[in-house]
Specification:
single chain; 547 residues; alpha/beta; 7-stranded mixed beta sheet; globular
Length: 547
Amino acid sequence: MAERPPFRVPVGTAANPVLERDELDRLLALGNSEERAEGDVLFQAGDEHLDFFVMESGQVDIIREATSDSPARTVAQWHAGEFLGEMSMLSGQRSLLTAVMTEAGRVRRIPNAAFKQVMATDGALSEALLDAFRARRRLLMAAADRAVEIVGDEASGASLALRRYAARMELPHRWIDASTEAGRRLLESTGHGEGDLPLVITRGTALPSATPLALAEAVGLAYRYRDGDRFDLVVVGAGPAGLAAGIYGASEGLSTLVVDALAPGGQAAASSRIENYLGFPAGVSGAELTELGLVQALKFGVRVSAPTQISELTRTADGLRLRLAEGDDLIARAVVIATGARYRRLPLDRWADFEGGSIFFATTDLEARAVDRRPAVVVGGANSAGQAALYLAGLGSEVSLVVRGPAIEAKMSAYLVERVTSHARIRVHTSSDVTALHGDTQLDGVTLASSGVETVVPAAALFCFVGAQPQADWLTGVAVDASGFLLTDVDVPAGEDDVRRPFPYETSIPGVFAAGDVRHGSMKRIAAAVGEGASAVSSVHRALAAR
């Protein structure tokens, strides 16, 4: 049993709200009262599909299991009138915590299915519970001792991929640099070495050479195939367009699955600050926008799985069959492709050597830590590049913004142009290209070419925001434009065997729709992607009704 410090989440705070009497009554009506003795376990770390508990009397301790260098610890205590749970109640993640009765009493147990139903249908109650769940998850994220530990090399792309996945999924974790004393001690205690990095340790199990998928499987966030899984709607891609499609589909009664090959957020999650998105006058980070969208999707019962790779889509007599990379098949009545587009890699020697450690396609807090106020180069002339340059310069880096065209006004919003050109730590290089990379194991400079003149500028990191390559190469038999973007509705060539013309956002495959950056003719703006995701679902309903 963990030693309990004198700790309680203060009553009336976001993490421990006082429910209105009628709200509490609506909750209690969904469950059965149980008498529980001291020492009884309500749930334990590793459990799935947790029931929801309201304390009627007694006390329960929420315990974080012992880690490699920390004993078990009580992280919260709940008493009469208070409720248990956090975001894993909705995400399907296995519990990272254990709940033990430390004073005998009564609890009201509400089955998981009934709880999820009330979250989707009771607006006022779901708002109060969601706010509490998010606040509790933030407390877990901020705790110094967390149930998941990631040990790796600061300059490793594989380590960064793990950390990015954990951050986007808001998975409470602790990063430990393998080169520190703590890192070396941890490797030694688990019997692993540098060849096993990155290493994930959770619930006493060490996962050598860990990947985001291995981490997802360990904590229950990976897709768990159930024989005969069928959905009304499967959304492939969890950026703004995909999350919007998932939210509108589930909220309108469709059984909905959203999958992403990496993690929710898409390119939007890579943005440090978005200031021209409706409803956020002070701006919003891509990470915050992703978190809000994900919470909203879970509230409506969307099943979200990442990383989950779809390798093939075919039409069958049963519907649309999607094959997972692991070999299992899903059947859907309709599919929305929202896989987006990825930034292009530059054709430079040693690019692969530096990617992930010194070359990045995002500017979040993780990448900023790697730069640590040292000089940086940002390549690109659109909004993403401008936002990245301002973010890095604001943190103290001298930034070289490299633009191939003669002026940044061509593709960048006016408010960003004004800020970029007036910032003392940003130098804009127009009509320029990066032609060479310099450094040993880490980047330390790049060569810029402009009008035949080459200049070497210092750079501890390069951030690339050029080009847009659609992530649709796994699809076959679908009409695309010359660049590989999916053709939809009026752009789909007419066929002799067409039973009907495609609905808005429908591709050349009946029942398969496209939204967001992967679609030919899309605006490549977050607000437009959200609108396309919602509009595609409207067409999904029309297609399903037409069968």
